[in-house]
């Protein structure tokens, strides 16, 4: 660390130059030309084509062919590629290509899966059978409970294709998380037997935080949640059984998700379960 560098440019000087250039450039897409945040040239070339808007739009479409010159946009979802292993980034890229370039176009324009062309390709809204926005207020009473008679009268809820596929992939992610950790558990177990590096040896000098520091807040939060679910039933609208199921899911997936995050710098989001239950 303190060795004299023999390069024509030191690491400190390179960092300073990169910092200044990054700071100067951010004023261009962030203030002067916000359009550079997302350039959808397909929409510019075909401004009146609905199909091209669905293909090239980053807001209401597949964002195919679009690019960005804003670093904050690059790191907004997957994080910085500078600190993420290449295999993890490549894995995400392969999945993205399969989904956006193959699965969605075929399902929407070729197969018309579940009458997908009747609804927007990329939308998180709820629709009725005619393609109009679903009126949630007609099927929910004053206590925010569903009225099944009104629901049957108004009809089933329909989702846009991308939104529906995201649900499917969300549940697939949950199953794949357990499968991945199961197959690669040997490597995780061997990490305890391998020789510690210098950083691990240095940290061994410090005492670990007692486990009861974590157990007490966990038990207290679960107890308070259980009281709320049993005393304020109408306000919370969650049975105590539902709370136990939620806690069980958290206990099961916390370690596998943490394992994947530690090895890939990728956070697996599993919002499908609560969203599915809310619908």
From TrEMBL:
It is a multi-pass membrane protein. Pfam families: OPT. Keywords: Membrane, Peptide transport, Protein transport, Transmembrane, Transmembrane helix, Transport. The chain crosses the membrane at residues 12-32, 86-111, 161-185, 212-232, 239-262. One of its GO terms (molecular function) is oligopeptide transmembrane transporter activity. GO terms for cellular component: membrane. InterPro entries: Oligpept_transpt, OPT. It is found in: Membrane. GO terms for biological process: protein transport. Belongs to the oligopeptide OPT transporter (TC 2.A.67.1) family. This is Oligopeptide transporter.
């Amino acid at each position: 660390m303190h060795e004299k560098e023999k390069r024509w440019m030191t690491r400190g000087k390179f960092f300073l130059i990169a910092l200044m250039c990054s700071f100067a450039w951010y004023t261009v897409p962030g203030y002067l030309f916000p359009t550079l945040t997302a350039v959808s040239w397909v929409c510019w070339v075909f401004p009146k084509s609905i199909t091209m808007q669905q293909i090239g739009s980053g807001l209401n479409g597949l964002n195919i062919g679009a690019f960005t010159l804003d670093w904050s946009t690059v790191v907004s979802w997957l994080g910085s590629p500078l600190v993420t292993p290449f295999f993890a980034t490549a894995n995400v890229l392969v999945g993205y290509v399969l989904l956006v370039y193959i699965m969605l176009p075929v399902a929407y324009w070729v197969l018309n899966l579940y009458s997908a062309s009747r609804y927007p390709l990329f939308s998180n809204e709820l629709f009725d059978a005619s393609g109009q926005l679903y009126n949630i207020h007609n099927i929910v009473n004053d206590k925010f409970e569903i009225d099944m008679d009104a629901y049957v009268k108004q009809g089933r809820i329909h989702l846009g294709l991308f939104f529906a596929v995201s649900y499917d992939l969300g549940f697939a992610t949950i199953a794949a998380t357990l499968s991945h950790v199961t197959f690669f558990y040997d490597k995780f177990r061997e990490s305890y037997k391998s020789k510690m590096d210098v950083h691990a040896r240095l940290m061994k000098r410090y005492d670990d935080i007692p486990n009861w520091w974590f157990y007490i807040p966990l038990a207290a939060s679960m107890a308070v949640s259980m009281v709320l679910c049993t005393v304020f039933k109408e306000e919370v609208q969650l049975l105590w059984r539902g709370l136990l199921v939620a806690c069980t899911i958290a206990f099961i997936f916390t370690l596998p998700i943490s394992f994947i995050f530690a090895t890939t710098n990728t956070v697996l989001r599993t919002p499908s379960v609560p969203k599915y239950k809310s619908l």
